[in-house]
């Protein structure tokens, strides 16, 4: 039996339809996170005045411009960690902490409820958010950095299982543990047609327990999150499980910034720094801290 209270896990957003303007709507939460927000930008003369004010306030005074990162107040290790020991830490914060100073920016981190964070992004109170283009509705409304790290969703089996994932057909007739309210685009048709039996769980802890007790044949997990949990919580008995090599879905994490707020001049420099971090091993060193 696992000690549920000692293991951090993501809080799952309910299908309330009350998420923020940029957050998933209609219950489309984290396996594929669709951001539906759009920024209400000024146009015409007002846009020119606003751009000038932003420029002179941030650059003209000779001070480093603040870069305010918004991460949600859920716990999703290793991407963002909000337990008592590492609140506001994780791969995302560490990566941006390396990038910002090289661009003459002062990084500030805000840990916020998702709805409030997207509202603040819309109104210019925060500047940057980590996500994937594939999860974002109307992605061209935003500026995007180069890819940072690959997010992979995979199958977790019991250690002795001979099951392998090749395509959704590999899972037909099987039961799989899934996160409640998550959307898994690659598998949704098979769920709807009843070809794969979906068993919803409230946390990764619940999914592991269901799999360990043979109540499901497999669990749908995030590769990086599961590796982090197994490394940091040996009481989960990682030796009892086997991660499949083939992801059933994947997307590249990037940083998203709003258009029309002066960040256009930084994008090429962001990307140059990301390229350098990949080349000199800085990016891998950050990832290794959480593997």
From TrEMBL:
InterPro entries: Solute-binding_3/MltF_N. Residues 12-32 are annotated as: Disordered. Residues 67-291 form the Solute-binding protein family 3/N-terminal domain. Keywords: Signal. It comes from the Bacteria. The keyword Signal applies. Pfam families: SBP_bac_3 (PF00497). This is Bacterial extracellular solute-binding protein, family 3.
């Amino acid at each position: 039996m696992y000690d549920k209270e000692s293991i951090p896990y993501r809080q799952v957003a309910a299908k309330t339809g009350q998420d923020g303007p940029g957050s998933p709507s209609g219950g489309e939460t984290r396996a594929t996170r669709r951001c539906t927000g759009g920024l209400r930008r000024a146009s015409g003369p007002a846009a020119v005045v606003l751009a000038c004010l932003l420029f002179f306030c941030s650059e003209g005074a000779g001070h480093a411009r603040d870069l305010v990162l918004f991460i949600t107040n859920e716990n999703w290790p290793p991407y963002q960690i909000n337990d008592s020991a590492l609140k506001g830490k994780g791969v995302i914060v560490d990566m941006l902490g390396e990038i910002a100073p090289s661009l003459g920016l002062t990084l500030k981190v805000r840990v916020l409820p998702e709805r409030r964070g997207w509202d603040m992004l819309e109104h210019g109170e925060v500047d940057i958010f980590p996500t994937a283009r594939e999860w974002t509705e109307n992605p061209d409304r935003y500026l995007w950095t180069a890819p940072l790290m690959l997010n992979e969703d995979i199958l977790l089996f019991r250690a002795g299982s001979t099951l392998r994932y090749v395509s959704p057909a590999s899972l037909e007739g099987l039961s799989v543990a899934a996160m409640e309210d998550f959307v898994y685009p690659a598998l949704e048709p098979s769920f709807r047609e009843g070809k794969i039996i979906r068993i919803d769980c409230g946390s990764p802890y619940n999914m592991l327990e269901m799999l360990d007790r043979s109540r499901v044949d497999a669990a749908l997990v995030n590769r990086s999150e599961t590796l982090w949990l197994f490394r940091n919580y040996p009481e989960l008995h990682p030796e009892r499980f086997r991660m499949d090599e083939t992801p059933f879905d994947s997307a590249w994490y990037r940083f998203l910034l709003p258009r029309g707020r002066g960040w256009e001049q930084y994008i090429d420099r962001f990307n140059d720094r990301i390229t350098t971090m990949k080349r000199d091993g800085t990016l891998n060193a950050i990832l290794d801290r959480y593997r």
